[in-house]
From TrEMBL:
Biological function: Bidirectionally degrades single-stranded DNA into large acid-insoluble oligonucleotides, which are then degraded further into small acid-soluble oligonucleotides.
Listed EC numbers: 3.1.11.6
Signal sequence interval, chain numbering: none
Record flagged with keyword Cytoplasm: yes
GO molecular function, one term: exodeoxyribonuclease VII activity
Predominant cellular place of this UniProt entry's protein: cytoplasm
Stored Pfam families: Exonuc_VII_S
Organism: Proteus myxofaciens ATCC 19692
InterPro entries (alphabetical): Exonuc_VII_S, Exonuc_VII_ssu_sf
Protein name: Exodeoxyribonuclease 7 small subunit
Amino acid sequence: MQELEQIVNRLESGELPLEEALNEFEHGVRLARVGQKTLQEAEQRVRILLKDDDDATPDEFIQEAE
């Protein structure tokens, strides 16, 4: 999360050359996707833990529209 914030700050500064800004943006997108996947997996684990069914498996995660 800290690395993502640093990337945002560097991009917002407007001081990066275009190619470097694109590379930073690409890296930020990858970090955000990893964070989103980790969050989804944690949510599935919580759902399983809260179920009473001992044979429960992770449900397909459906992201709600914002």
